[in-house]
Amino acid sequence: MPLLRAVWKDVVNTLHTKGITSPMREARFILAQLLCVSPSRLCLFWDHEVNQAFLTSLTNMLEERLRGVPLQYVLGEWEFLSLPFWMEKGVFIPRFDTEAWVEEAIVFLRFLAQRQQILTVCDMGCGSGVIGISCAFWVRETRVYSVDISLQALALAEKNARQIGVADQMIFIHSDLFQALSPADLRFDVILSNPPYVTPEDWDTLSAEIRNYEPREALLGGEEGVDVIQRIIEEGVPFLKEGGTFFIEHDPRQKETIQAMVARKPALEYVRHIEDYQGRVRASVIRKKG
After folding, report:
1. Which one of 69, 81, 101, 176 has the lowest number of neighbouring Cβ atoms within 10 Å?
2. Is 160 a catalytic residue?
3. pLDDT of residue 55
């Protein structure tokens, strides 16, 4: 049976030959997944002999990846804000850039939690649930309503909530944005959203693995990319408490459009933008006056 170090070299060479841009990184994730260890600990197993079952599983994963299936779907899991989340085809893959503004939202929620016992939070368009579940995990005073139009996404989000241990803080709602909710029954301290905001023009420039495997409806946001954002702002205002806050992700080029939307709403004020780890505008913070 071959040693892991030899298998590692073969996997890196295979990925590199097929044009994978980060072959060493991806090889580390794939092998660590098969060994059920952290990628950072893979080097501790260099002299570990791998059996035929391991090699068969590895071959299947590599074949899938080399067909263009995103690494997150191949692995079946991905990390967000240091928490492990299940991933599956048909549900949007969370991006690293999203972590930047969610971190700030968590800091804001912690501040609010100093002043009230329970915070009511909405994760609108929750997908796999990473945003709302992360908030529930890091701020235990939250009750999070995770909303999505996709039943598959909601089922996956509920599975992730159970895995991470916050299911008792979560409520999952099948809805086209706010349509299945009533502001007479439900008001939020904070509404968080990473909505679809890709334009048709930008869609054509995305990588093939995104266009071929990730759900279009979770990415495309209309001709200017702001159709869903506009709906969230307009329909969400009645659901915010006085002084309540939106955190909404968007393309850096959409900031001025969103500011103009907010300026037309007397009940709202644009507070600030949040930059991602590359220094690009990635989200806007909008407050309901009062």
Report:
1. 176
2. no
3. 94
Judged against a pLDDT cut of 90, whether residue 290 lies above it is answered with no
Active site residue 195: yes
Same domain, 51 and 118: no
Per-residue pLDDT tens digits for 135-156: 999 999 999 999 999 999 999 9
The number of angstroms, rounded, from the C-alpha of 248 to the middle of its chain's C-alpha atoms is 13
Q: Is residue 264 part of a domain?
A: yes
pLDDT in tens, 91-125: 999 999 999 999 999 999 999 999 988 999 999 99
In a domain, 73, yes or no: no
Determine which one of 54, 80, 92, 108 is catalytic: 92
Residue 60 forms part of a structural domain:
yes
Which of these, 228, 278, 235, lies nearest to 250 by C-alpha position? 228
Q: How many domains does the chain have?
A: 2
92 is catalytic: yes
22 and 130 co-located in one domain: no
| pLDDT reported for residue 1 | 82
Among 137, 172, 178, 194, which one carries the catalytic annotation? 194
Q: Identify the domain containing residue 13 by its residue range.
A: 4-67
Query: Percentage of the chain with pLDDT > 90?
Result: 96
Residues 59 and 94 in one domain: no
